[in-house]
Amino acid sequence: MPKKATYLLGILATLIIGCFLYHQFCCAHCGNTCSEKDKTAIRSTDSTMLHPAYPFALKGNGIRFNAQDNFNFLKNDFKKLLPVDDSIAIGATSLKSFLENSPALLKINGFALQDEVNSSIFPNLGYARANEVKNYFVSQGIPSAKIEINGKISDDLIVQNGTLLGPITFDLVEPATEAKPETDWQAVKTQLNANPLTLYFNTGQTEILLSETDRQKIADMIRYIDHVENAKLDIVGYTDNVGNRETNIHIGQQRADFAKNYFIQNGIAPDKINSNSKGPADPLQSNTSKEGQAKNRRTVITIH
Questions:
Q1: Pairing mode, if any, of strands 233-238 and 158-160?
Q2: What's the pTM value of the predicted model, to 2 decimals?
């Protein structure tokens, strides 16, 4: 056989043996690697961040600020997710400067899905989220009197892995050109205190059951203390007359403190709430019946 042909056959044999050994010893490892790459690609697709339903945007006569991110919330919750994006903090600084030199008000609109469970003290979860964002701006130095909040139900929201992305919008509202009567806050206070919020609960409960009327009344009270300087909520605990007065005063204070802590958990500033006890004083009904005693074991919330 010619020397050149022998050389070519040697090369061919080397290639065949190499392919065989590669298949035997490397293929399984390669297959695993490829599979892992595929899985990684799938995970990356799942975790790709979608744009929020409403990006953070401030637009008014003298301010224009936009950011890609916005406030985010877990489904069925009103607590904002942390950390808040740095761009939002920059926007809050710009907003504070703008509002200091403008008669405009900031209106915060919070949104919630129809199927979300509202465990807050507010009329809906969107309202509770707007209140949470309001508290953030107050912490950045913006007075609560310069902020109005509102809550709406909408199914046009972005949800990713159980998180609502950007269910918050902002409007900068200029004063109306036509003169409108200012809110008579004293009349608001008188009306609310004439029919105070009265709650019945056991101090061991994890939440207080509220009707739609109760939630709206709370929203009206919070709006009052947000706009009237030094205004606070007064929470007073009451008992029946069973037992000695000292014990009943203590039980009444426990009721008031429980309600106060519940309000704080729902985003009301601690320094905006007073809590005290009147024990068996001022009964609503006679303590001679079980029904009357039950009505007297209550917590009453008014505006101070």
A1: unpaired
A2: 0.81
